[in-house]
Design goal:
The complex is a heterodimer. Chain A is an all-alpha fold. Chain A is built from 8 helices and no strands. The termini of chain A are far apart. By secondary structure, chain B is an alpha+beta fold. Chain B is elongated and about 80 Å long. Chains A and B meet through α2, α3, α5, α6 and α8 of A and α1, α3 and β7 of B.
Chain lengths: ~190, ~270
């Protein structure tokens, strides 16, 4: 069953349909919020509130895609989070014993430690972006959205999406280049030799 | 006078980035491709952007630290909700049901053992992109059999096993110590995953479902031994709907890395009045 059918049922007050939508989007929505605000508890609060608001307001959803609409609600909550003066929360270091990377085990402790450090540096580089660029690149590279979907979430033209993603990538790249031991291939001159 | 060979304009940063994402129209895409093919500097810029995008995409997808719900109070007080639109009293009671997914990572540790204890105890695995296991109540992949056949592989008496039709040696078994419980009883659950290739990991969710709604069975407290996962659940402590009595299904879902359900084992459970 696709989103449109589930949304139609949810608009008529069917909680089961909305529950299926929640199950479908809870992980990507939570991860978007997590990469935006940094702290797992804050991200979970944002995802929870986004689902609650979406449920309450779903009768106002007309032709817009549910996914873009839901992420737009969560994005606005992220901006509210920052407007309230909440800072980017430092995520606890991932315990790589507890993170099973989608079917691939990295049994070597050194490899796991390096992967953990790489991830920490990437998170740090995302944190350094301004909120608009951060959101654009998260929606693209964390959530895998197409540009037109992102434009729907952000409410901006496609050209703006393109520009924000490009500038965000350039800034992240610049940040990661400071750590050539971990990111040798992000150096432009590494390929120009 | 012969015209000079056309040199495609050097692409902008925006164009290179969008080129990576296949978000340029055909003309722009061809122009960027032509230029990059003959320009080492732009090739290097493009590769740098590509590796940067890969680094971000390599961040693990995290499992939410808690389940998400729709608060019953807010729903009931929502002015727009037509009372007649609810599915009667049962649906109203279902408002309190919690929906969530927890993943039990399994991994095979040897060529002979089909599964092994989770190192470090019951870990929260990185979640695949979340999708419902399947619309709850529908059949998932595999062929399910009950009781007698499953009991050969399960230590507990009430069991259901689902096997992978493409590889019958791969089986997911969920079993309980009884088929029927009192609302204040304790349900002992065991999960077994057989036939995982060496080095392969699997993420398994465990839910108790009724009428399309599922309650998460927390997995952080049960002991884990070499034969799989076992957990004890006091039914009175689960967020079950009122009235609690009824027919439930205990669902074990093995997830693929892409978020699709691979094997779904369903075991009928009755909670008596």
């Amino acid at each position: 069953m696709d989103d449109r059918d589930l949304v139609g049922r949810a608009r008529r007050g069917d909680p089961e349909a909305f529950t299926q939508l929640m199950m479908q989007y809870q992980v990507p929505l939570y991860n978007m919020a997590l990469r935006m605000v940094g702290r797992p508890d804050d991200a979970a609060d944002i995802a929870q509130e986004a689902f609650t608001r979406a449920w309450v307001k779903i009768r106002t959803l007309r032709d817009a895609p549910f996914k873009s609409w839901l992420f737009q609600i969560a994005a606005n909550l992220c901006y509210d989070h920052f407007r309230r003066g909440r800072r980017y929360g430092e995520m606890p270091d991932e315990d790589t014993n507890k993170v099973v990377g989608l079917g691939i085990l990295t049994p070597d402790p050194q490899e796991r430690a390096e992967a953990s450090e790489r991830n920490r540096l990437v998170r740090e580089s995302i944190e350094a972006l301004d909120h608009d660029m951060r959101l654009a690149i998260i929606l693209r590279d964390v959530n895998g959205m197409a540009y037109d979907e992102i434009a729907g979430v952000l409410g901006v033209p496609l050209g703006t999406v393109k520009s924000r993603i490009a500038r965000a990538r350039a800034q992240v790249q610049e940040h990661l280049q400071r750590y050539p031991d971990f990111f040798p291939s992000t150096r432009e001159d590494a390929h120009a030799e | 006078m012969p015209s000079e060979p056309r040199v495609p304009t050097e692409p902008t940063l925006d164009e290179l980035s969008a080129y990576l994402d296949h978000e340029l129209d055909a003309d722009a895409k061809a122009r960027v491709a032509e230029h990059v093919a003959g320009c080492a500097d732009c090739q290097a810029r493009l590769d740098g952007l590509r590796q940067t995008a890969y680094a971000i995409r390599a961040l693990p997808m995290e499992t939410p630290p808690r389940t998400f719900t729709i608060p019953a109070k807010r729903r009931e007080s929502s002015s727009w909700v037509p009372v007649a639109g609810w599915i009667g009293g049962v649906a109203a009671a279902m408002l309190i049901i919690v929906v969530g997914v927890t993943h039990l990572p399994f991994h095979s540790a040897s060529t002979t053992s089909s599964y092994s204890p989770i190192s470090g105890g019951l870990a929260q695995g990185a979640a695949p992109a979340a999708r419902p296991a399947a619309p709850l109540g529908q059949s998932g992949a595999g062929t399910q059999m009950y009781d007698s056949q499953a009991a050969t592989k399960a230590a507990l008496s009430n069991a259901a096993t689902v096997s992978d039709p493409r590889n019958p040696s791969r089986m997911l078994t969920v079993s309980t110590d009884a088929a029927s419980y009192s609302p204040t009883g304790t349900m002992n659950v065991e999960l077994r995953l057989l036939g995982l290739p060496q080095g392969r990991t699997a993420l398994v969710s465990l839910l108790l479902e009724r009428n399309g709604f599922a309650v998460l069975l927390p997995t952080g407290s049960g002991p884990l031994d070499a034969s799989g996962y076992r957990g004890n659940y006091q039914l009175a402590n689960l967020a079950l709907p009122n009235p609690v009595a009824g027919s439930y299904t205990l669902i074990a879902v093995e997830w693929l890395p892409d978020g699709n359900a691979e094997l779904i084992a369903r075991l009928p459970i009755t909670i008596q009045g």
